[in-house]
Amino acid sequence: MTTLDQLSQTISSLAQVVTAEFSTIDSSALNYKPAPESWSILECLEHLNRYSRYYNPVLAKAIANNSDGNYVPSITYSWLGIKSLDMVRPQNGKKHKTVKHMNPANSQLSQATIDEFLKHQQELQQLILRAKSANLNKKAVPVEFFKLLKLRIGETLEFVVTHQERHVQQALRVKQELSSKAAA
Fold this sequence. Notes:
The protein is mostly helical. The chain has one domain (about 5-15, about 40-175). The protein has helices spanning about 5-20, 25-30, 40-65, 80-90, 110-130, 155-184, and strands at about 140-145, 145-150. The protein has a two-stranded antiparallel sheet. A hairpin with a 2-residue loop joins strand 1 and strand 2. The relative contact order is 0.23.
């Protein structure tokens, strides 16, 4: 199975988890924060929506501009790609400061946040399909917070999906904490 196929499976899985776990929860529970500085379920998803609003169109452009028949199925990683991926892996329990405009803390959020997240997952699936004709190793994706730096198409797709895994798991922990609190 190729990396793109694995990413596609992960995206499908994340969409299923978000639908199954969060779609039937009421608004107050979706906005519950375990601590004042923590994010709610919806804040975790809004954070991902903010990243998707940037990366989905930028990836679409990079893929379109590099789909010239030179498809390279395997991904090679730059130092920036490796560092970025290591930082967002769900296994990396280290907290990282979020750039201000990507931090959804204290936002007024609703079920629409979940709907937007699911829409972004569909867009990402389409991007992965289109990426199957692109050079995945082309440095063509400006990094959101410092656009002079560029990531490769393949590593950016992996970064986006891995980042989503991290924060969906965070949202699931918030739900777990909420369930424990309700049971007590």
